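Teaching assistant here, posting this on the class forum so everyone can see the example we discussed in section. The complex has two components, and the goal was to see what a joint structure prediction looks like when all of them are supplied at once.
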Amino acid sequence: MNELCPTERLLMGPGPSNVGSRVLRAMSTPVIGHLDPEFSRITDDVCKMLRELFRTGNRLTFPVSGTGSAGMEAAMVNTLEPGDTAVIGVNGVFGMRLADTAARCGATVVSVDAPWGEPVDTGALIETLKKYPRAKICVVVHAETSTGARQPLEELGAFLGNTPTLFVVDAVTSLGGLPVEVDAWRIDVCYSGTQKCLSVPPGLAPITFSDKAVASVNARRTKVQSWYLDITMLQKYWGSERIYHHTAPISMIYALYEGLRVIFEEGLEARFKRHAEVGGELGIGLTDLGFTWFAKEGYRLPQLNAVYPPAPDTVESLRKKLLTEYSIEIGAGLGIVAGKIWRIGLMGETCKRASVAILLDALRRELRR
Amino acid sequence: MNELCPTERLLMGPGPSNVGSRVLRAMSTPVIGHLDPEFSRITDDVCKMLRELFRTGNRLTFPVSGTGSAGMEAAMVNTLEPGDTAVIGVNGVFGMRLADTAARCGATVVSVDAPWGEPVDTGALIETLKKYPRAKICVVVHAETSTGARQPLEELGAFLGNTPTLFVVDAVTSLGGLPVEVDAWRIDVCYSGTQKCLSVPPGLAPITFSDKAVASVNARRTKVQSWYLDITMLQKYWGSERIYHHTAPISMIYALYEGLRVIFEEGLEARFKRHAEVGGELGIGLTDLGFTWFAKEGYRLPQLNAVYPPAPDTVESLRKKLLTEYSIEIGAGLGIVAGKIWRIGLMGETCKRASVAILLDALRRELRR
């Protein structure tokens, strides 16, 4: 087998985003044991920084040992039991995936749909929740990675905060790029992935559970269907007891530790501002080149631009050419917009003026010749 | 938050084992996309090397995006449906965990027990399987990490090969340290973890499914209860179709790629011989110091020595002293032998004469003064 030497890429897809040198180097740190007191101090610090990131005081805040999808599954399997009702906002691939996963937990899924590219109407969600006052969870996707649309959360959270229903939010593509206010917005379970706006390699899923969510899980009639993701056991490893459950992915946790340090050195407000500004610059450049947006105005994510390229017949061929000839990765459309749109990410380390300049330069060359 | 600089350890516990510099460096390789054709070539090579390691031609052989426990869960959730019968050999913590996980899949668990430290009797397993000819799976743990006992597999595999029951083997602590012959022993599902005899950081679970196992999963009446671990979807990412399921943990796969290259440069036979020889040297030294073995003679794992230290009252205090004063990590006892035994690992990179010398020197100093 050959030496490992992949071509360096400018990662402007929907994730992974580019990973900075400090985080890459952190993964080369010698491995120590998952029950070593020194490792416990590192995980304590990681959990502390994740609480800052999620803007929460939730005790149970930790990285799930899997990718963002494992975070989604952890949210579903812990909160749902067979026969429960799950109200789910569906306006893209990740909402559909949530509905599929909830059904695999034996839940009855009540989906509240919206056209792809638009947020799910908060009024429609609240009306549905009034019809299902005993719904166990209500789930929405904060930043729908398949469409580039942002879902407003505050009004829904304020409503759910006064009901027994748990408010579950998919923040895979928003955390670290847009404000996510777990406590202020009364979110009960919120999960993300490391490879988007955090610019840490894929492999961990930060998650947080409110006391209301933990109490609900502790009151289950049945065991959590996943042994691996069962928070009734995981909380004893991530808490002060340090009871062995599974071997934590040490090197990935090193990477997350360093990635979070980088984030707090920049500061959350500055980071959100950077994402908004650089996203805005890309928007101006793309508009100038004849690109149009898939997501509805007012709900577009600066860090994930789902756009129609100006020449519909070269959507896929040009995307591939950008990868092979310019080493720029752009995401393809998923589901109903496969082959029709591009998804251009500007997340974390990728989100800088230089990325925009490199992409626009390549596009000008290819589209105008 | 401080710089990340954990103390370097000699990792002689039950895992993680020490990770070599080539593998540590591989993780610093720049991240590329999980759908990049260059990444597909890397994963193809990883799967090819995993087939060599498992000694199988099984098409569906890949690393699960989680630790060894996620591999266990993947084996259970894919093969079992509610109402199925699972015959499980239980002679330690990991057999108990399998029984727990199978029950969470809605299976009826028929456990065949043996005293901790002994293998489960193959005759007893076969007798039980004759009583349950429609059992969906029969599972045993090849190397019981809680007891240091090795489970013979060949005779059981030969029996199961002529039945509809799937032969599932936990090879978490054996793969790369002891021969694991998936095809020759007619194993249908075999999973492992990266952080034991492969000396890759924790975070991936190599797994392989025989055609008999894949056919059984494809004939399910119900969906796999885990979305994240569902091989009916995962096989489309790890196979030639390359259909997006979840974002693969890129940097961990780089580490596994390099770790497997290191393994095949040494050669499997040489590696097994090294584990046997170095394990034998540790055995002589420990016996000389008055240690006795927990596992039954003839079934002891050279790479994981479960031993009674000579002074029962200092089992835990001396273990902690080895960590803090000598930077040597030794594993504690689990379950019924908690506080009574040590588990001394000699896996992968840790398995060398120098590790034995360092440990024996520390023990001589502490036990004889």
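For the discussion questions: The two ends of chain A are 41 Å apart (CA to CA). Residues 10-15+268-368 of chain A form a domain with the Aspartate Aminotransferase, domain 1 fold (CATH 3.90.1150.10). Think about how each of these relates to the inputs above.
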